[in-house]
Write a structure and sequence with these properties.
Helix content: 25-40%
Largest sheet: 8 strands, parallel
Radius of gyration: 19 Å
Low-confidence stretches: none
Oligomer: single chain
Shape: globular
């Protein structure tokens, strides 16, 4: 069952574009390290980088990309840049405006995939936020997904992005877009790891030929370093509760048996379910480990054992939105 979707290093999206299945997640890479991390990652073999309009290091990630291009380490066509638009859709034209602003920050003419970061919309002034704001104060009514998606399709037609997709949308919200769209979503980015396997949503997307990519594929073990800055987004109380996926006996046993790290086992499990992964690290050794997951395989028995780790444990619950009618996590 789980072994039917084994991925190679690249996957063909429903629009024909190729996407590397391992990306470097950049959400919490320190600003001071971001440029060097991009250079190191490219040297190691990363070609897919995931960023967002709302990440504080986006300008530095863009500078890192510019640096490797200027040095001739890679050509632009060899990179796959995923950019998520902050959910600030107040009026028609905001998608075009936001994407052009993000491209300017990234110093790029186009991105390879543009995703709507969240199904709930905020006021534009949230972009001038600081880390301590109450995000709930910036909510801006109901987001017109149909209209916003039309604008996303427009971005493809004028060449600002090659593919379009969604992030943090639930099955019904995706279905609503599929019923009205001209260009279907090519990608869904969602939290997914051994403790939150999202089986129904993954199957739905795969049946609809939407490629699922997993953020927090290792359970965000380093989240505690960021303390209260992430209290609005997580379900971990003060964000200091440690991730324990690495300590699961089956993960440790498989790591020992296959002479791999626990992280490699967790990432390989997702890859064999047909899911792309977005691990984050700025450590060169871990960067190497996280991308070197294509030269071994978990057996069906191994996959079945990993499936039993499901706990329905969502880390990024965005709890301040729970009362909003478009909150996506009432079902998984």
């Amino acid at each position: 069952m789980n072994g039917e979707h084994v991925l190679c290093e690249q996957h063909t999206l429903n629009d024909g574009n190729l996407i590397p299945v391992v990306a470097l997640g950049t959400s919490r890479i320190p600003i001071s390290e971001a440029i060097d991390v991009i250079t190191t990652a490219v040297n190691i073999g990363y070609r897919h980088f995931d960023t967002s309009e709302v990440y504080e290091n986006t300008a530095q990630i863009g500078e890192g990309i510019r640096k490797v291009l200027l040095l001739g380490k890679v050509k632009r066509k060899d990179l796959f840049i995923t950019a998520k638009l902050g959910p600030c859709y107040e009026q028609r034209g905001d998608i075009d405006t936001s994407l052009r602003e993000l491209l300017a920050i990234l110093q790029l003419d186009y991105v390879d995939a543009c995703l709507l970061h969240f199904p709930v919309q905020f006021k534009k002034t949230v972009k001038q936020r600081d880390a301590t704001i109450n995000w709930g104060e910036y909510l801006n009514g109901i987001c017109d997904h149909e209209q916003v998606w039309k604008e996303m399709e427009g971005a493809v037609k004028i060449g600002l992005t090659r593919s379009i997709g969604l992030s943090n949308f639930n099955q019904q919200q995706i279905e609503n877009i599929l019923q009205k769209c001209t260009i279907p979503p090519a990608v869904l980015q969602t939290e997914c790891h051994a403790h939150l396997q999202m089986t129904d949503l993954v199957k739905f997307c795969q049946d609809k030929d939407i490629f699922v990519t997993a953020f927090a594929p290792l359970g965000s073990p380093g989240l505690s370093k960021y303390g209260s800055n992430y209290k609005y987004f997580t379900s971990l109380g003060n964000s200091n509760q440690p991730c324990d996926i690495y300590d699961e006996s089956i993960v440790l046993d498989l790591a020992k048996q296959l002479e791999r790290t626990p992280a490699q086992i967790l990432l390989r499990h997702l890859i064999q379910r047909g899911i792309g992964v977005l691990p984050k690290s700025s450590n060169p050794e871990r960067l190497k480990e996280n991308i070197n997951i294509f030269d071994f395989k978990l057996t069906k028995c191994d996959m079945d054992s990993m499936e039993k780790l499901e706990k329905g444990r969502r880390i990024f619950s965005f709890g301040f939105l729970k009362e909003h009618p478009q909150y996506p996590f009432t079902e998984t």
